[in-house]
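Q&A FORM
Asked by: J.P.
Topic: structure of Hemerythrin family protein

PROVIDED:
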Amino acid sequence: MRVEWTDELSIGIGIIDDQHMKLVERVNAFVDAVECRDDRKIEETVNYLIGYTIQHFGAEELIMLRNGYDDFKKHREEHNWFIKMVYDVNKELLDKGLSQERLDQVRELLVSWIVNHIKVSDKRIGEVIR
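REPLIED BY: S.T.
REPLY: Here is the structure written out as tokens.
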């Protein structure tokens, strides 16, 4: 269930592609931590995702704004949804922990969202800006 970085995930904007690679690495770290049931690593990875996604989304949104990207608002809503989801997972983790079933659910959601978001929404940024 790991994400493999391929050219299909590249959007053609160097800084964004580099950040996406780091994001994929962290999602894979989460997948590994869930499979090993390493609670410390799960918490560490979720904390990292909170900070890094905010930083990455900010950079991506700045590029969209500077280039007059026509679908900025919709794209930003997708980012906001993801940040809220990761925040909620972190809150659950801190408040009561996560069951294996919930961890599996979050793992699947992270993997599918990242891949689909990059392949569809982010890919379009690269196409429009170039």
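FOLLOW-UP: The chain has a mean pLDDT of 95.
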